[in-house]
């Protein structure tokens, strides 16, 4: 057996702490999977399979959803060829951990046995509790639609978070205004009614223990302070829903107005505002569900400087999609008291980028302003392998930078690691 | 002697496979060098010497080309000072391998002996065959002008590839239209005649075994779907050559039209379309031949999203010049089935960038969508040191990521490496 | 004791050479500190403390400057939490070296003893000489306002450098025109008087041994060759100070005109022109002194291509603020004879970025065109820990790239390192 190294001991120290996961898409009413299809149906697998040549009809037939087992049967021959990816390694790790799987590679020969065995285990009483226990998961934040009733689950474990993409970018659609009216009892037409409705949402969410407001933003977005007189006239006339625009992308001033109104309420209600910056939606329209979005690295945090200045009381945990933007994020968090680095989002969530990005953050961002990681998971089974990947990288970087580089003892390195891993989330999102 | 490590064994596994080089500028009628001047006259050396202060007159005198030996004599004193560069290390490796050279550094004292000895070896019968054998080279793709007759060489070893820069960006010049008319018998004026001419080119090239169409593209280029009515009128009136524009850079709609017409023919003829994205031509006009181009990192693959969507049947092996763009390339290849990562091009072709770029590709792009490397060489002697550099980096990354990181056996790592190194090229360019 | 490795021996070789520091903000009339407040008042600490939540009133009270000891007392509780940053590690290293401090971490409990002890040592005769000797500092370049009399200090050790930000970006303000008139005796109104005034400055500076002209530039700046007729009219009419513009950022043509006039004088007087590219001033107006500036990575060296072409006789040592721009810098220095890579500036000056940037430069930029490092220090005490950080990274990269990678002997690696570390500065700035 190999001897335990100092880096191993740092990793053990990080692994000993329960996980606080500050951003996910978990459905608290169905937090774990019923079959492998819930796991391999995750967009990370379906989109890679699609990218690797699997026909869309094999994944999302136009005739309607596939039988779960059939979906997995369709995916496996392609996934076999994707074993180089870190995404597939998440699957291997979770299957080994939760289902006692003993293979390294999912193949045409072994998938069905795993499918059947895992389905049995998933159906067994206490499965969700076992996943939570094996994951050592203390708390996980959700992503809730603004009109989510937030009923029927333990909001202390499944912490609500107000997701606001629809409000900002789709308020001009009748659908969203109707949903908003239904949720708040307020018909939104002008600035006052918008504020009244948003206030209702914040009251509802904070009463249910929400700990953050969140939004994903396209790379071209630049929230400006004002809006021009045409838009002002529309808003004043109660015609907020009728701000002209050729398509959904041409109403930036209205978007800014709603966005800043949300920031005002974050300030008033003491909620951090998670900004997930840089996603272009629907770049590949023929992709699978959630596998259509990409980014444009021609984007700068300079676009948010006015916002950061205007809301010094609001904490902005910032995630960036383009890894090139991480360098700006480090610098902005080094200067702005209200900018906090947050996780490694989506296309940045691979070890090559995490290691580089993390190293720069550790070296130059105040240690109490770094939210190390979140799972972004749709099913609880993914929290474990994703956090495990991150902790291995974190342990390695801590050892190299602080023990090897600066002569720190292991305990001091672990202490810093735990702050990044969960202490900062605990403090910043305590509400 | 140092013990052979697992990483060494992976490297040996990669080195054992014959090289398939999917992009070069080899002249099949003179594939190897006649003197060291053919080697050190490569723009990588002349431009570095120029950059390091050697006068242009010493390299490309206005009075006409230098005697080969004089050119080398002029270059050596500057090259001495460039031994830190990886470019010079290519030279050292090839001189040691092909000419039995025993020095490490080219100097004023030792260059002449090497010049004379290598010239003798180059003139010996079977020299080209020996280079091919020592390189273990199976096949090399060329870069052929659209009016290349493709006669007089073994197109199975020297695989033709239709280079289309002139067609897209210079069709408005009489010279290019005349060359096109001569090559195809079609006078191009309107859209139909353009299509007829391009079809002739594709017929000619595919009959001669061409396996790809290729083009290099400036960072500002964004191939749009349509063109406006003014251009349409010119094209309809058979005046395609008279689309107005202040200079060669101001006809983007015409460029787009020709470019998309080429993509249509790639679709019809089943040829991959190599896109080499990001070069600004003639940024340093006073530079040496081929040492005048640079890039602008304010560029995004978003500019090509419409193209990728419009031609799902065409495979686009994409190379990027700005290393910052590699991060987008990884993400686009992860989502778009028809986007394939391709090599490490030009300014990105140094170990510091290759290692970072390769690591991200291995972790996140389907293993069968990665064309690992091409030499871009003008003379066959360069295939060996360039591929050797790449294989060393690949072996190191494979070992760290898969053996050390995920517990894979060495054979499985080698298998993945060979797919990236040649298997994918074999499959994607099989025609 | 650990055995000395080859990398250690390379480091020793680099450490043995006296430091030549080609860019700093040292005040030659007060080069070292009087109390710890001069050290911890450095913007790297005050801005990180501010970013970490310390109120601005605790650092820069509106009522006027704090007593030095009180400032340190205010900063320490926050700095305690910043010990992960490399900036704080500079402090630890300098305190241990210059004051015999034996702690690792500045805390509420130990800061006062250090404050008192260091103040005593700073007040002792010969303190500055001791710092210079312990640093092994041979020469340090200054940053001088254009109207600095440059009197009363040893210009051979404290080498003057003409800083020109005010001239380029504030010549339209009466204050700067008055300062210029006072310094040169020339009232600037039109192009001729501007040239006359600038000539006087260059005469004054070079007479005092200045070795460079320098400027920091915003990311949007693109020095154009010409200026339009409106501006020409203003300049011709002697109203250079009245070029219209909504604010200081709207006079780019005037800026270009002054900037290029400076370049003309660099050419005539044989001074390198240090370009520090990419800073946006006052992005966080509520930040502490010098802690308000950031950058925008949407910037390209393409913006300077015309300049590099127009002034082939001027050496441009280029620093970039956005680490993403380093990749362009490597390529531009590889092509343009007059572009030299220069140091690791400000937000790029952290090991994570330095290591990546340095590796690419070593591999692809002529070894005699790399100015490795400068301290940018305001007090001499910082030269040692900053250069120490850089030399450790340089030694590691030299060992990995050249000894391990290419089989070089240690001496040859040290020789290259010394060229990058000081030889190139010596040659390029010899005047």
UniProtKB/TrEMBL annotation, chains A, B, C:
Keywords: Isomerase. It comes from the Bacteria. Its EC number is 5.3.1.12. One of its GO terms (molecular function) is glucuronate isomerase activity. It is an enzyme of class 5 (isomerase). SUPFAM superfamilies: Metallo-dependent hydrolases (SSF51556). It holds the Pfam family UxaC. This is Uronate isomerase.
């Amino acid at each position: 057996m190999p001897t335990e190294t100092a880096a191993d001991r740092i990793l053990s120290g990080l692994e000993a702490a329960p996980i606080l996961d500050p951003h996910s898409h978990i459905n608290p009413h169905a937090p774990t999977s019923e079959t492998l299809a819930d796991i391999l149906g995750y967009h990370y697998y379906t989109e890679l399979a699609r990218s690797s040549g699997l026909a869309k009809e094999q994944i999302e037939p136009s005739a309607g959803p596939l039988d779960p087992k059939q979906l997995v049967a369709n995916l496996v021959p392609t996934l076999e060829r994707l074993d180089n990816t870190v995404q597939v390694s998440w699957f291997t790790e979770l299957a080994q951990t939760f289902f006692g799987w003993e293979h390294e590679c999912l193949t045409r020969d072994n998938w069905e046995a795993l499918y059947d065995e895992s389905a049995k285990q998933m159906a067994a009483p206490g499965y969700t509790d076992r996943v939570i226990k094996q994951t050592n998961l203390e708390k996980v934040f959700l992503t809730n639609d603004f009109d989510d009733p937030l009923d029927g689950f333990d909001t202390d474990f499944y912490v609500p978070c107000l997701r606001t993409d629809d409000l900002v970018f789709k308020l001009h659609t009748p659908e969203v205004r109707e949903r908003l009216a239904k949720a708040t009892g307020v018909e939104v037409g002008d600035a006052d009614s918008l504020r009244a409705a948003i206030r209702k949402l914040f009251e509802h969410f904070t009463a249910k223990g929400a700990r953050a407001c969140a939004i994903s933003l396209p790379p071209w977005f630049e929230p400006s302070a004002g809006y021009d007189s045409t838009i002002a006239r529309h808003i004043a006339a109660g015609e907020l829903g009728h701000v002209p625009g050729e398509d959904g992308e041409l109403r930036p001033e209205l978007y800014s107005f709603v966005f800043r109104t949300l920031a005002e309420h974050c300030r008033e209600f003491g909620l951090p505002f998670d900004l997930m910056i840089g996603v272009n939606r629907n770049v590949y329209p023929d992709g699978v569900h959630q596998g259509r979005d990409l980014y444009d690295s021609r984007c700068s945090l300079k676009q948010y400087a006015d916002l950061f200045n205007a809301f010094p009381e609001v904490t902005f945990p910032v995630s960036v999609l383009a890894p090139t933007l991480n360098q700006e994020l480090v610098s902005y968090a080094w200067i702005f008291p209200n900018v906090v680095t947050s996780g490694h989002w989506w296309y940045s969530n691979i070890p090559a980028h995490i290691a580089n990005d993390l190293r720069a953050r550790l070296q130059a961002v105040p240690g109490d302003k770094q939210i190390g990681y979140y799972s972004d998971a749709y099913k609880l089974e993914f929290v474990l392998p994703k956090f495990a990947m991150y902790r291995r990288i974190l342990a390695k970087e801590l050892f190299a930078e602080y023990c090897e580089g600066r002569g720190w003892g292991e305990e001091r390195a672990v202490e810093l690691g735990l702050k990044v891993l969960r202490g900062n989330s605990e403090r910043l999102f305590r509400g």
